[in-house]
Amino acid sequence: DDELQTDGNRSGHLQNGELELTPTNEEVIRIIAAQLAEIGDQFNKEIQGRVVEDLVQQFLNEKLSKEEITRHMSRVVNELARSIPSDMAQEKAMLVLAMLLTKKIVNTVPSLLRHVCNVTANYMNQHFHNDIVEMVSA
Q1: Which domain of life is it from (predicted)?
Q2: Which domain, by its residues, includes 78?
């Protein structure tokens, strides 16, 4: 029911005008978001502008399908992941890289928000669904 947003915030559902959250999951989500934000801060400096610009061009290319763009994003995340320190959880780091790339693309071209978020959600579902479920259940 609760969803972790790409900016580390959580969403909830309104019931009778009030935000409804599951108390047991709320703290778990906060902890995971804090860990991902910390990893994100470390990687934010390492993502070069040309990488973001290249992804922006992919999203702007109307000839490419959502699947092609997802594959390109996956390739970029995998390339960036090579610089991940060996003591860091690979899956968490790659998840953070995908979210950071999404944020940087949207900050560069805000009109791509919906398209970029859809592709990122598709990418994360394909590659990290089990890892996300595992993080929440741990």
Answers
A1: Eukaryota
A2: 24-137
